[in-house]
Amino acid sequence: MSHVEQIKLLRELGAATVHEAQGAKGALDSGMKPIDPSSRLAGPALTVEMRPGDNLMLHYALLKAKPGDVLVVDAKGFVEAGPWGDVMTHAAQKLGIAGLVIHGAVRDANQIIDMGFPVFCRGLCIKGTAKNQPGKVNVPICIGDVVIHPGDVVVGDRDGLVVVPKAEVEQTLRNAALREEKETAFRKELDAGRTTVELLGLGETLRRFGLE
Q1: Homologous superfamily of 3-166 in CATH?
Q2: Residue span of the signal peptide, if any (predicted)?
Q3: Left if phi > 0, otherwise alpha if psi is -120 to 50, otherwise beta: which for 26?
Q4: 212 pLDDT band (50/70/90 cuts)?
Q5: Crossing angle of the two packed helices 56-64 and 86-95, in degrees rounded to 10
Q6: Do 32 and 161 touch, CB atoms closer than 8 A?
């Protein structure tokens, strides 16, 4: 399976399934949400470390991005400025960038949604930014307790975001396929009249707590 096909499959599987398939790790905190709940995102991370309230490095990152990349930006959680808006979205779409994940805020949310560009962020803010401060591109960054390396695959949807280390993509896909098969079998058993308590072997645990 090609890398492009892997990315497509991870996107279709969704963040929650991918998170479980790789051992319940790599999830970004629940404060990182899509501005459009219908957004789905998957692609290799082009990482950006930038100063709060300054978006110079985002302009620089657009020079380095390749089609299919996801810009994953550590803006230090600063939400009193919106370093990304509709004009940068237009530029990113022209380059074929798959989406934006920013540990910070954006603005022009309605326009971005109308443009169909997936954006995951910590908040919205109408305030603009300066363009003066240096930063770094394609270096390891940290959002919450998750370290993201350049090329790691980011998967996002309405439920949230998960990061898959690039060396673990194949194993995660194998695990996800097994999980999907198991859940399909569960649904058939439920349709046949069995309960989740039976299927998960929870009867003894419930009895132990007097929950007959």
Answers
A1: Ribonuclease E inhibitor RraA/RraA-like (3.50.30.40)
A2: none
A3: left
A4: confident
A5: 10
A6: yes
Contact 39, 116 (CB under 8 A): no
CB 11: neighbour CB atoms within 10 A?
19
Residue among 165, 176, 144, 148 nearest 30 (CA):
144
Q: Sign of torsion, CA 123 70 18 15?
A: positive
pLDDT tens-place string over residues 59-108: 999 999 999 999 999 999 999 999 999 999 999 999 999 999 999 999 99
| CA neighbor of 45 nearest in space, from 160, 125, 162 | 162
pLDDT above 90: residue 28: yes
Check: CB of residue 135 under 8 Å from CB of residue 56: yes
* Torsion angle, alpha carbons of 140, 92, 95, 97, to 10: 50
